[in-house]
From TrEMBL:
Subcellular compartments: Membrane
Organism: Drosophila persimilis
Pfam families membership: Tetraspanin (PF00335)
Protein name as catalogued: Tetraspanin
GO terms for cellular component: plasma membrane
Length: 231
């Protein structure tokens, strides 16, 4: 029984260390996201809620690190109560991360910002002249129209300079052919890919940690009962 408890402590210690590393990576991701947004906003001022996502990642990473430290303290003190709290905390973190992953995954696949949707609506409005919102996305993402540059041709609208490299439409090769809808989804997919991988890594690790903690609590209880019985 003692060997079993010692093995479980070792496994849980390793899992807690892995969680702490994952928390550090999550903080790094949030900081990287904030830095990349600062660079992008120096070119174009658009808000897609990524600032909030970056801050949440940093906060979540910090909580994961603190939880890992708490788990190590609980193991060191051999406290069943603290270990149970640690297991519950891991489950709560698991749920929070799964919710964040679900929201992020759905946003990267189907969601478009209201400003971009408005730009598309203005594009299809024959009476609307000019489209500063869509032009901003076109210049930023190197795209043209919603589906492709052919959108302007089908609507008998003049191609804006934002559809061309260096705002120079005198050369045919400068024209951006890709549509802004797919370009924006690719942009979000690239931003969230690391977060999705890291989230699944942490979710699985936290699940393993919570299960191991429960086994350790049970092992400690059984060991104490045996000692009490024989004494």
């Amino acid at each position: 029984m003692y060997r079993s408890s010692r093995l479980l402590r070792y496994i849980l210690c390793v899992i807690s260390g892995i969680c702490a590393v994952g928390g550090c990576l999550l903080i790094w991701y949030g900081a990287w996201l904030l830095e990349s947004l600062a660079d992008e906003q120096s070119v174009v001022v658009l808000d897609h809620g990524e600032d909030l996502a970056a801050v949440l990642c940093i906060l979540l990473g910090s909580v994961i690190i603190l939880a890992s430290i708490f788990g190590c303290v609980a193991m060191g003190r051999d406290s069943r109560t603290m270990l149970i709290c640690y297991a519950v905390l891991l489950v709560l973190l698991l749920v929070v991360q799964f919710v964040m992953f679900s929201i992020s995954f759905a946003a990267s696949k189907d969601t478009l910002p209201d400003s971009l949707r408005q730009g598309f609506d203005d594009l299809w409005d024959h009476q609307h002249v000019g489209n500063s919102t869509l032009n901003t996305y076109e210049h930023w993402l190197h795209c043209c129209g919603r589906n492709s540059a052919e959108d302007y041709m089908h609507l008998d609208k003049e191609l804006p300079a934002s559809c061309c490299l260096d705002l120079d439409c005198t050369k045919l090769l400068n024209l951006y052919m890709a549509g802004c809808e797919i370009k924006f989804k690719e942009y979000l997919g690239g931003k969230t890919a690391n977060f999705h991988s890291l989230s699944w890594f942490l979710i699985l690790t936290e699940f393993a940690g919570s299960v191991t903690t429960c086994y350790l609590v049970d092992s400690i209880r059984n060991h104490r009962d045996r000692v009490r019985f024989y004494n």
